[in-house]
Amino acid sequence: MTERMERKLLDLKARQQAGEHMPCPRCGGNRMKEPVHTNALSRAADVYVCDDCGTAEAMLAFMKQQYPLTCWAAFQPQRPPADFKARPAHEVMGIVLRTQSEDLQRIFLLCRDDPENAEWHRLEAFESCPGLSELWPQPFQAKFRAAEARCSSDSRAARTAASEWPQTWSIRKANAGESVRQTPGAFCFVTRPTLAHVPPEPSPLGVRPTRCQSPT
Question: pLDDT tens-digit profile of 181-216?
Fold first, then answer.
């Protein structure tokens, strides 16, 4: 867990100890009883959860399975507003490259250098990158949805955006071996370590790694 999420967990515990009525931090449902200590104490963190979640955790423990904290409702990101779905893809691409390239590269380096906390860094990315609809830590991919995903390789906006992108990043236009995947209504940036090395072809956007589904 990152320091930022540890602070959020400590704040959650302090609010419960103060008697604040809140939704269940695990499922987000309004099922918590008062006083708070009459609810179930979570097996995953030192906080209280609703009785249904307490039962679910007991069943998972019996089956030696886990429901990670990164899937808890209390830790889902607060996404800043963005109007990307109303803009064409070439315009969105230019905005992202001009305003979010530093954040995306920082998150890429965090995921690469701290793989144990990659899922936590992924959640934090949604709070610092407006319009980000999905992010995969490995291989690193950041997906943004637009009104349409047509972006011609010779468009002035695409060439300008590409020229401003750091050298450790690149843009897929349509050909295999490049690095932005485009589908109707979405496109995806992919990192590569050096300009001379192209990463393996990422999984199709419809096939996600095994983990909890992020909010949309």
Answer: 444 454 555 543 333 333 444 443 333 334 454 444
pTM value is 0.65
> Domain spans of the chain?
3-75, 84-191
List Cβ neighbours of 176 (8 Å cut-off, separation of 6 or more).
Answer: 201
- How far is Cα 31 from Cα 203, in angstroms, rounded to an integer? 38
Q: Using N-to-C axis directions, what is the helix angle for 101-113 and 89-99, rounded to 10°?
A: 70
